[in-house]
Write a structure and sequence with these properties.
Blueprint: H1 6-33, H2 54-62, H3 69-101, H4 105-119, H5 126-136, H6 142-166, H7 171-178, H8 183-194, H9 196-212, H10 215-221, H11 229-234, H12 244-264, H13 266-278
Helix pairs in contact: 1-12, 2-12, 3-6, 3-9, 4-6, 6-9, 6-10, 7-8, 9-13
Length: about 280
């Protein structure tokens, strides 16, 4: 049995030293969010002398200039993220399965197009996409925002599902076909339950992008009541001034649901990533 030796202690110290640059911004956000307005002129590195929740209350009630703006933005973010993740799983999983199991040239071309879309910057097609959304009357609506995110994240979801399916053995599928099961039943009852790790990775990566994205939400919802949390946080940034305590307090409120979800499902998320990387 190996004990706690010098080499283990040396590695732990090295890990803590390496983590300091990443923990420094977190410390700055926490100290500023709980700092009273009377202390904002002092040192930003020192902890607040009298921590207060007043910034949290102001951020909740004053985001966007309305009394219910932050709660509305929270609802918009939850609804948009859940809808996008659900639609991605429903649409990308069958697409990835077909691309992985059919070895035709057409499948290779389609997969190449998805890969090309994956590496292309979002900003390239933003202007024509916005023009199309305006013509369709979908700007400033939740449906329009969900459709935009669905199109942006579909290449990543299909890429991950296809790679995972290519590494899955086909023995269970062939046995089901021998028993007379149709392709749809094979996918729904046999294949889909086996790809939970890939589904967890797709849901995590795409959900975090949609939840944290600011640019797309600002372009397609603006200052309407359909704006998401990042846009609500940005409302505290003025033309000439920025209220950093309120900004950091609002950022903590926006990050709290994601942090709570990750703390609750940490083992499942990490297991999904590990299975996908080694599968």
């Amino acid at each position: 049995m190996n004990g706690y030796g010098r080499w283990t202690a040396f590695r732990e110290v090295g890990l803590w030293i390496g983590a300091l640059p990443m923990l420094a911004p977190v410390y700055l956000v926490l100290t500023t969010a709980f700092r009273d307005r009377s202390e904002t002129g002092g040192s930003t590195l020192a902890p607040p002398a009298a921590p207060t929740l007043s910034n949290m209350r102001r951020a909740w009630t004053e985001a966007g200039g309305g009394t219910e703006s932050f709660s509305q933005a929270l609802f918009n973010s939850v609804l948009t993220t859940c809808a996008v993740v659900l639609l991605l799983v429903v649409l990308a999983a069958p697409a990835g399965y077909v691309l992985a199991r059919r070895g035709s040239r057409l499948s290779a071309v389609v997969f190449g197009l998805f890969t090309l879309a994956l590496i292309m910057p979002i900003q390239i097609g933003m202007i024509p996409l916005y023009a199309v959304m305006v013509e369709a009357g979908l700007t400033g609506t939740r449906v329009g925002l969900i459709l935009v995110y669905l199109g942006l994240e579909m290449p990543l979801a299909v890429f991950l599902y296809t790679g995972y399916f290519r590494g899955m053995p086909t023995a269970y599928e062939e046995a089901a076909r021998v028993d007379g099961a149709r392709p749809l039943r094979v996918f729904v009852q046999i294949v889909f339950p086996l790809m939970r790790p890939a589904t967890g990775v797709v849901a995590t990566l795409t959900g975090l992008f949609v939840w944290n994205d600011f640019f797309v939400a600002l372009v397609f919802t603006g200052d309407t009541d359909k704006a998401t949390l990042p846009v609500a946080v940005y409302s505290f940034v003025g033309r000439f001034t920025a209220e950093w305590p309120l900004i950091f307090a609002a950022a903590l409120l926006a990050a709290a649901p994601v942090l709570a979800l990750f703390a609750f499902a940490q083992r499942s998320v990490m297991k999904g990533f590990s299975s996908t990387l080694h599968g």
